[in-house]
């Protein structure tokens, strides 16, 4: 019997090895992880991971060049579970401030904003950008992706821009770093996280395991 | 502030073997970097830094395989430094599974390399490693950067250099005090504080850790965002968990 494919969309941005090995570590026996840029493979997949690393403009250019914008949208419309990670989350939104402003896929209404220069916390203490390291993620709603993950669990982040959703009902989780921002979003069979589950030790693996089992 | 300070054990690897020795318990082969990295991953390390001190081409290929093996089993961030000179070196390391690369001497010889690397791979994976030595004491202390493992002076002011590297696209600075490295007398706190106050990106303090108070001081007095240590963990003097508990007791935000 052929295995159900979990496709990791490869559009040339960054290292997908970590995400692939983490998913392989937690997926079911009848699931197979494939890193691919092949539209047919992605279209035949059971579920899809949409990663992203680096600058939004470069990511958007490659996504469009490879036709991944239409492809990903059609897969979401088909009802498949799709998980965006890091810049893969930011790309789903309406617009990003990065690179002097970039229009994104507009699949989820909201904006991606810069943390800021001379960024400080509520006590006036300097905050470094990028936001790099392990921070608490609070559940904004019950969700299958949070199964067996405690509210406030730390995950590994590395990013200089953060997501502000137009519709707070679509927030999966939130984190605070000078400002409160969306650490995750969900919209039916689409979900995304700003942090890196593949780099977040046991809790990250649990989230990926939950994604492998998610039946939206 | 909820963002946790990080503890980063550092492995010096030569030809695919951890050198300087690692002697903590429950590891079958203390010289195998994969086993050592797995041990630190289990112990709660927040990241792992892997310093490749291999001089030969064959050794570099071995390093890539080692990074691949670690990345397949260790699901926390992995930084690889040592001998990163070209974009191809960076691409190879990232493809092997490294999350960040640390650039040291190559940045000094060709600062534009940092700018190119950051533009190509993103600032989030470009760490600039700075080896600094104090060259003036007193009211106006001054530190200069050294290359070749601290043997060659450059005449470049360390604080100005750090600022320049951030402007060129470094996403993080790994600061090693050559005066303190290996002494177990603690970080150079004045240097650490002076640099972290000058740069907007995270700073990892390195060099001189001999006990847990040194780690805490690096954060509390030095203002470091992360602390790197090798021997105190390698020889089992302290576990990562003990270090975290100790730091948390001093009201440092930690991932416990």
Would you write up a description of this structure?
The complex is a heterodimer of chains A (216) and B (256). Chain A has 216 residues and is α/β, with parallel strands linked by helices. Chain A has a single domain, classed as 3-Layer(aba) Sandwich (Rossmann fold). Chain A is built from 6 helices and 14 strands. Chain A has helices at residues 17-26, 39-44, 56-65, 68-77, 87-90, 201-213, and strands spanning 4-9, 31-36, 47-50, 82-85, 95-96, 102-103, 110-114, 131-136, 138-139, 154-159, 161-165, 171-177, 179-187, 190-193. An 8-stranded mixed sheet of chain A has the order 2-1-3-4-14-13-12-9, with helices on both faces. A 4-stranded mixed sheet of chain A has the order 6-5-7-11, covered by helices on one side. Chain A has a two-stranded antiparallel sheet with strand order 8-10. In chain A, α1 (17-26) packs across α6 (201-213). Chain A is globular. Chain B has 256 residues and is of the alpha/beta class. Chain B is built from 10 helices and 11 strands. In chain B, α2 (57-73) links the parallel β3 and β4. Chain B is globular. The two termini of chain B are 15 Å apart. The interface between A and B is large, with 40 and 36 residues.
Task: Work out the helicity level of chain A.
Answer: 10-25%
Q: What is the CATH class name of chain A? A: Alpha Beta
Quick one: how many beta strands of chain B?
Answer: 11
Strand content of chain A: 25-35%
Shape label of chain A: globular
What does the overall shape of chain B look like?
globular
Q: Percentage of helical residues of chain B?
A: 25-40%
Q: For the largest interface in this structure, which chains are involved and how many residues does each contribute?
A: A-B, 40 and 36 residues
Count of domains of chain A: 1
Order of helical and strand elements of chain A: EHEHEHHEHEEEEEEEEEEH
Number of helices of chain A: 6
Task: Give, in order, the helices and strands of chain B.
Answer: EEHEHEHEHHEEEHEHEHEHH
Structural class by SSE content of chain A: alpha/beta
Largest sheet of chain A: 8 strands, mixed
């Amino acid at each position: 019997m052929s295995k159900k494919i979990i496709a990791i969309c490869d559009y040339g941005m960054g290292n997908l090895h970590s995400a692939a090995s983490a998913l392989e570590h937690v997926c079911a026996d009848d699931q197979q992880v494939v890193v691919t840029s092949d539209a047919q493979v992605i279209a035949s997949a059971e579920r899809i991971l949409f990663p992203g690393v680096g600058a939004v403009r470069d990511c958007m250019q490659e996504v469009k060049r490879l036709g991944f914008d239409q492809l990903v949208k059609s897969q979401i419309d088909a009802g498949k579970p799709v998980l965006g990670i890091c810049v893969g989350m930011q790309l789903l939104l309406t617009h990003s401030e990065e690179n002097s402003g970039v229009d994104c896929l507009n699949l989820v209404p909201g904006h991606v904003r810069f943390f800021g220069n001379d960024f400080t916390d509520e006590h006036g203490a300097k905050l470094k950008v990028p936001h790099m390291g392990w921070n608490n993620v609070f559940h904004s709603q019950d969700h299958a992706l949070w199964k067996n993950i405690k509210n406030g669990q730390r995950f590994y982040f590395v990013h200089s821009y953060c997501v502000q959703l137009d519709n707070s009902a679509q927030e999966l989780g939130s984190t605070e770093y000078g400002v409160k921002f969306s650490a995750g979003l969900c919209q039916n069979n689409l979900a995304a996280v700003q942090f890196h589950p593949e780099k977040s030790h046991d809790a990250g693996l649990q989230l990926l395991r939950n994604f492998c089992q998610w039946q939206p | 502030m909820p963002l946790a300070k990080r503890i980063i054990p550092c492995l010096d690897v030569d030809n695919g073997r951890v050198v300087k020795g690692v002697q903590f318990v429950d590891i079958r082969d203390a010289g195998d970097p994969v086993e050592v990295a797995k041990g630190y991953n289990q112990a709660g390390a927040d990241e792992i830094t892997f310093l490749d001190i291999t001089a030969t081409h064959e050794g570099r290929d071995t390093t890539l395989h080692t990074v691949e093996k670690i990345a397949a089993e260790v699901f926390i961030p992995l930084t690889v430094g040592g001998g990163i000179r070209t974009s191809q070196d960076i691409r190879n390391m990232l493809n092997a599974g490294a999350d960040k690369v640390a650039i040291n001497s190559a940045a000094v010889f060709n600062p534009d390399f940092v700018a190119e690397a950051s533009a190509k791979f993103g600032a989030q994976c470009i760490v600039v490693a700075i080896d600094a030595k104090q060259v003036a004491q007193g009211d106006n202390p001054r530190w200069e950067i050294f290359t070749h493992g601290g043997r060659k002076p450059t005449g470049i002011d360390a604080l100005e250099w750090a600022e320049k590297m951030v402007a060129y696209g470094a996403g993080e600075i790994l600061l090693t005090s050559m005066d303190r490295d290996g002494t177990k007398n603690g970080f150079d706190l004045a240097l650490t504080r002076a640099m972290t106050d000058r740069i907007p990106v995270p700073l990892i303090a390195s060099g001189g850790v001999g006990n847990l108070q040194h780690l805490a001081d690096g954060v509390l007095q030095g203002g470091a965002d992360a602390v790197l240590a090798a021997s105190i963990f390698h020889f089992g003097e302290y576990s990562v968990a003990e270090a975290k508990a100790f730091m948390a007791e001093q009201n440092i935000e930690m991932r416990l």
